[in-house]
Amino acid sequence: MDNDSHISVVKDLYSAFGSGDMEALLGLLAEDVVFILPELPGVPLQTSYEGKDGFRQFLADREPALVYTAFSPGQFFSDRDHVIVLGRTEGTVKSTRNGFQYQWVQLFEFTPENHVRRIHEFMDTHTLVSAFRERDEQEQPPPSARDSKKEQGPR
Question: Is 42 exposed, middle or buried (0-12, 13-18, 19+ CB in 10 A)?
Answer without folding.
Answer: exposed
